Amino acid sequence: MLATYTNARLTPMPFDQAAEAMKAALRNDSGAEPSRTCLALALAKCALETGRFMSIWNHNYGNVKAGATYAGMYCCFELNEVLDGRVVWFGPRGRLDRKGGSVVAEPYDDPPGHPQTRMRAYENRFTGADAYVEFMARGAGGRFAQAFNFMKVGNAPAMVTEMKAKRYMTADVGPYLNAVVSLQREFDGKLQGQRPPEVDVTDEQVNAFRIYRNEEAIEAFLVAEMDREISAGPQAGRNLLDYEAETDANELKPEEA
Known about the structure:
This protein has helices at residues 15-30, 36-49, 125-138, 145-152, 156-165, 173-191, 203-212, 215-227; strands at 4-5, 73-76, 79-83, 86-91, 94-96, 103-105, 118-121. By secondary structure, it is an alpha+beta fold. The strands form 2 sheets. A 4-stranded antiparallel beta sheet has the order 3-4-5-6, with no helix packed on it. Strand 3 and strand 4 form a beta hairpin.
C-alpha cells in the first residue's frame, strides 16, 4: 500500500472544537460560511460514528478506511465488521476468534496490519475535518457527492437514505436516521446557544446498535443520548459504521508465506 503507518491513538475533543474544525472545513470547500443546519448535520453524522467525538481515532471523523491507493497516513486498531450477517472481529495481526481474542485466520504483520483494520489518520482536527469533507464531496469516485449535496442543505433523511443506497453503512437505515436527526436537532440548538432538547432512545435503536456495535459502545451511546453527558471513552471502540468503499477485496486474502 502507498500510505505511511503511524501509531493508533484516541483523539477525543469537545463539541465546540469539533464544530470549529468542521465549520472551517465546510467553508474551505465552498468558499462560504456553511448554514447552521448544514453544520449541525455534518457534526451529527460524525458524532454518531465516533461516540460524540470521544472515540475518534487519529482525527478520522468518518471512520474512513485506508485503501490500497490512499497515500496519506494510516493506523491500525482492533474493530469489528458485519460480514455475511455476522459480527467478525479483526486485530492488526489478523482475524480474531472474538473481541480481544487470538488470531485465527488471515495473518498479517503489524505494520502494515490487516486491511480491515487500516484506518486513515490525520495530524490534527483541522486536517481531519478537511479530509472528511473532501472525501464526502469528491472521494471514492464521487460516490457520495449527492449525499454531500443533501448535507449542505441540512436534509438528513435524504442524506442518510443516499448514503445507505451507496453502501456507506450496514446499519438499518431507520434507527440510523432517527439518531442522526436527533443529534442534528440537538447540535442545531447548541450552535444557537440553546439548551439541548430531550431525546428519547427507542427500543428499535437499541436493538440496531446491539447488532452493529460492541456492548461498551452501546452503553456509552445511550448514556450520552439520555443524560446529555460525554461519557464514551477508549472502551467504546469503533462505532456502527461499516464502510468499505475503498478496500480492495483482493487485499483481504491471506498473504503468501
